[in-house]
Write a structure and sequence with these properties.
It is built from three helices and eight strands; from the N terminus they run E-E-E-E-H-E-H-H-E-E-E. With about 140 residues, the protein is of the alpha+beta class.
Length: about 140
């Protein structure tokens, strides 16, 4: 499985993991291939998951400067995405309107953390801990962040 780098946006749903930054997707331990247009379509669907993405939005994103009939083009894109994700069920076609990404399982969004060595050595602000009698911590008091 490809590795994620610090700062990458990664989504996990079902058996799939999608790295939106590096543009790779796995189903189980197998890397799935998507072409650039498929990635644009998947990224748009995932960014608006649970909401209708209209054919017009797909046209503006995938074919902004081309006169194209969107319906057949999107059918091809969605078929390729569904194959990569292991079948149907994730993407719903709303007749004559567009598509909705509907994962039947929760989607977890993860931002891959930067390693602690990449964090700048700057003191933290002293902020009281809400609901606690503990004093605020400061970076200079020996506490590792």
């Amino acid at each position: 499985m490809p590795a994620s780098s610090p700062g990458d946006r990664v989504l996990r749903f079902g058996l799939c993991t999608a790295n939106l930054t590096e543009r790779w997707i796995t189903r189980g331990a197998v890397v799935q291939k998507l072409n650039p247009k498929d990635w644009l379509a998947l990224d748009l669907l995932l960014s608006k998951r649970g909401e209708l993405v209209s054919y017009e939005e797909f046209k503006e994103t995938l074919w902004p400067d081309v006169m194209v009939e969107v319906h057949p083009g999107m059918h091809t894109r969605v078929s390729a995405i569904n194959r990569a994700l292991g079948g149907s069920g994730y993407i719903e076609n709303v007749k004559d309107e567009g598509y909705i990404f509907r994962a039947s399982v929760p989607v977890d969004e993860i931002i891959v953390p930067f390693p602690s060595s990449a964090i700048l050595e700057t003191p933290l602000l002293q902020v009281p801990v809400p609901g606690s009698d503990l004093p605020a911590r400061h970076a200079d008091d020996g506490c590792k962040v």
